[in-house]
Amino acid sequence: MLRIIYKKNSDWILDNKNFKGSFLKSNIDSLKTTLEQQLSEAWKSYRDQQMPSTKNEILNLLAKVEAFKHTVLQIQIIDGEIKNVTYPKNNAEFAIYERKIEQLKYYWNTLSSDEVPEAVLHFLRAAANQGAPLNLLTPEVQDWINQHGISDSLKIRLI
What is the rounded CA–CA span in Å between residue 14 and residue 20? Predict the structure, then answer.
């Protein structure tokens, strides 16, 4: 029955006397904005849980050490690419950013050099994340920091 009515007059579905197109458009626009905000917040939360802490302060500090310059640059590039996306628009984009996060983790975890003692690397990684406990600031670490002129870039604070 409805098919017959529709074929005769397809406009019967939208009664022009009662239809408020601008109200519908406004509601759709509002829904779209809300969904985009929620997707963006969900992506940011997920992204922040998955990514290592790559604070610019510590990266800029490490970039002053010649042995780290290339790796730090790679970290900064990938970090920027990941943080510049509002949210992945589809599964393919999500997979791309998942790979970028894995690349970032790889570069961060391999941030090392034969020129930098293991104790210094351990201290710098800890300082870059949650902060380094004072017992990691050994004389060897302190000497290396002073030799590379980066002592002014580090702070000790109470938590």
Answer: 10
Nearest CA-CA partner of 59 in 150, 155, 159: 150
The dihedral sign for the CA sequence 57, 63, 65, 67:
positive
**Amino acid at the residue 61:** L
Q: Is the pTM of this model over 0.70?
A: no
Write out the two tokens for 92: 């393919």
Q: What is the pLDDT of residues 34-48, one digit of tens each?
A: 999 999 999 999 999
Give the pLDDT confidence of 59-97 residue by residue, as tens digits. Answer: 887 787 787 888 889 999 999 999 999 999 999 999 999
- What gap in Å lies between CA 156 and CA 49, rounded to an integer? 26
Alpha carbon distance 132, 156 (integer Å): 9
Q: Which pLDDT score, from 0 to 100, does residue 110 have?
A: 79
138, exposed or middle or buried, with CB in 10 Å at 0-12, 13-18, 19+? middle
Residue 90 backbone phi and psi in degrees, to 5:
-160, 180
- For the chain, helix, strand, coil in percent to 5 are 70, 0, 30
